[in-house]
């Protein structure tokens, strides 16, 4: 057999092996997401309806509490509930994805000790499961928009890049936290504190115009502000997000994904020693 033929054969085998691995990982991802979905709503009377009711109830409570002193002068009272629920479900997506992703490798320890499997599947699966719940929460957003008489426009198509941006961001952050949690369990407790602080540092229930101008400029470096503002721009304000907004969301997502992936891949061979 000639060298060229051998190289061609080896290349074909490598591609076939790679394709088989991708298909296997995707099958495992789908199975794990389905399992989590069934477990979450098992023995629940309302079941999936909780994914719609929870953001609605949170929106009602927060609207009552914050509408008079956090709304800002430029926010009409009938629009504020939509502003609020968009911020709430977007931040909740990141919070749930990172919290669950952080535990993913630790909770998968029994399986990882018995079966050879791509470890990256577990943090990614948690992010995808959070994305499914986010999709159900959009029903609540639609109901509030109908109540507020805010129609949909073609700008709704920007939900595709929005979901891509925040999905990549959450995967990167989830991989990073999952790695840290394996080696330093204190990260699990510290992250809850970070999320609480991050909630108040992000315009979820308050508007930007109530902040001093220096803080408004600093807010541009807050990734969750960028994603929430992007979502509000095309859904609430019925405008196409600017090229700068797209660039900011994409760059933040890619940087976070790259850092999370590199940290995870560099340390994953040592996970088995700590879980």
Chain-wise SSE layout:
Blueprint: H1 3-40, H2 50-66, H3 80-107, H4 109-112, H5 121-147, H6 159-183, H7 186-200, H8 213-218, H9 223-235, H10 243-267
Helix pairs in contact: 1-5, 2-3, 2-5, 3-5, 3-6, 3-7, 3-9, 5-6, 6-9, 6-10, 9-10
Q: Can you walk me through this structure?
A:
The protein has 275 residues and is an all-alpha fold. It has helices at residues 3-40, 50-66, 80-107, 109-112, 121-147, 159-183, 186-200, 213-218, 223-235, 243-267. The longest helix has 38 residues, at 3-40. The protein is globular. Mean pLDDT is 84; it is low at 10-18.
Features:
275 residues; mainly alpha; 10 helices
Give me a quick take on this structure.
The chain has ten helices and no strands. The protein has helices spanning 3-40, 50-66, 80-107, 109-112, 121-147, 159-183, 186-200, 213-218, 223-235, 243-267.
- Oligomer type: single chain
Beta content: under 5%
The tally of beta strands, per DSSP, is 0
Query: Low-confidence parts lasting 5 or more residues at pLDDT below 50?
Result: 10-18
Helix content: over 70%
């Amino acid at each position: 057999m000639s060298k060229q033929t051998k190289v061609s054969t080896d290349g074909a085998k490598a591609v076939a092996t790679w394709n088989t691995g991708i298909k296997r990982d995707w099958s495992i991802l789908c199975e794990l997401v389905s399992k989590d979905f069934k477990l979450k709503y098992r023995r629940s009377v309302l079941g999936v309806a909780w994914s719609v009711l929870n953001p609605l109830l949170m929106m009602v409570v927060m609207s009552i509490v914050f509408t008079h002193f956090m709304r800002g002068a430029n926010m009409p009272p009938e629009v504020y509930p939509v502003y609020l629920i968009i911020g709430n479900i977007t931040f909740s997506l990141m919070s749930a994805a990172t919290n669950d992703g952080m535990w993913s490798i630790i909770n998968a320890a029994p399986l990882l000790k018995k079966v050879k499997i791509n470890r990256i599947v577990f943090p990614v699966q948690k992010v995808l499961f959070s994305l499914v719940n986010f999709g159900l929460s959009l029903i609540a957003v639609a109901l509030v928009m109908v109540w507020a008489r805010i129609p949909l426009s073609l700008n709704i198509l920007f939900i595709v890049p929005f979901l891509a941006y925040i999905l990549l961001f959450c995967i990167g952050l989830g991989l990073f936290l999952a790695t840290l949690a394996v080696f330093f369990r204190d990260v699990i407790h510290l992250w809850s504190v970070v999320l609480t602080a991050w909630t108040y540092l992000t315009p979820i229930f308050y508007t930007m115009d109530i902040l001093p101008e220096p803080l408004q400029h600093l807010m541009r470096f807050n990734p969750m502000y960028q994603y929430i503002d992007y979502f509000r721009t095309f859904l609430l304000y019925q405008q196409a997000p600017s090229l700068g907004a797209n660039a900011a969301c994409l760059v933040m997502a890619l940087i976070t994904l790259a850092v999370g992936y590199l940290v995870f891949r560099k340390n994953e061979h040592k996970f088995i020693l700590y879980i």
